[in-house]
Amino acid sequence: MALKIYNTLKRKEEEFKPLKAGKVTMYVCGPTVYDVLHVGNFRGAVFFNLVRNWLEHGGYKANFAYNYTDIDDKIINRANQEGKSAQEISAMYIREYERDFKALKLRAHDHNPRATDYIQQMIEVIKTLIDKKKAYVIGGEVFYSVDSFKEYGKLSHKNLDELQIGQRVEVDPRKKNPLDFVLWKPSKENEPSWDSPWGRGRPGWHIECSVMAKTLLGDTIDIHGGGIDLIFPHHENEVAQSEGATDKPFVRYWMHNNFVNFGDTKMSKSLGNVVTAREFLNKYNAEIFKYMMLSVHYRSPLSLADAQIQQAVAALARIYSALAAAESLIGADVKEGSLDSSFVKALKESTQQLEEAMDDDFNTPAVFAKIFDVVRAFNALLLKNPKPNPSMKAVAKAFKDWILPYGAMMSLFQESFQEFLRKLDGMLLKQKGLDVKEIEKKFNERNQARAGKDFSKADQLRQELAELGIEIQDALGGSSWQVKKG
Description:
Four Helix Bundle (Hemerythrin (Met), subunit A), alpha/beta, 4-stranded parallel β-sheet
């Protein structure tokens, strides 16, 4: 594996070399659990699932942590609004997140740490920072001193002057530097709190991830991921406090996925265009969601506009239709013969190019292009050989055996092929306001007219169905219909 990763820290692609040969440590910032998560929250979950799977494909043993921030102002505010405890709110929305995660059929992480389970470790790291003059205490509140870390700003590539000019919030006059950030804060009445050397209180957000990563994966981790909105201040502050405490590099490769937009508009609560992952999955389905998340390079913005959704539906229908045809051929009552030489060549070339694309900073659009090259080669042979024969049975098996493992790395193409195609048709009929019984009725009338050689009526019914967006395929094994896709 000659994997190259774009490292946010260096602003360039670098050859991936883990700290320990054959092993990879990964930490990705997970959700703050105060609400059902929106589609943008799951872009990282889908993408970094693929990263871990590809590393394992390359022979690495991955150790992957994806955390829950279960103590935060947003959680406390939600608890106060609903008359519940912060613990009840965070536990409820962890369950809701895990319900959506399960619906997406992504692989489980090795660790899902909750911040509140690591309070004592956070206190120990904060004490270390105070002892090393990297942090200071004022009235039971502990601040990190950014001036004590000469490389502050190295991840976001901004200097202190630029960052100070960019400050928009009212600055706490007690701070030595306006950019100094909270490591520990006193809790207000009826808020969750823990004993500490500085009084009852709770940790700041940034220290939580640093400590969970350090405790589970070590002082230096190979890959740290998250959305680009986390680069500053969250990840910048993680670097400062982690390296300030250990005097070791915190992360070797920083990876950041871009935003999810609707058309040209960024999704935001202020604009009222936030769509939860659950809403999307209920309206469409998990395969469409995962395909869309990976159809665009992870460092590029992703649009969930209707046009892109329809493109995803058409793409998935094409792949699943080819897989369904392959499955039918594999089950045909003929012996398996020798593989077509042109198909062997297509598989060999596509394998090399697909793996090169993945090794080039996870270029998933190029990966899908290679998958469609193989689908095209399979369909071309199918068109030449409409009846099952030994060679096509071998081609079908080779096609299925090639595509499914690559699909599994992306958590795609693992559904029952015919059932998924029926789901797509049902979804599209619902969107069009069409009744499947009415479609079946017209389809059967058309078949009866065709069988009775009333071709004029058959053509008329076919045209009526076409105007409704229904395509008919006539083959040796009989006729079938599907909703036009794309």
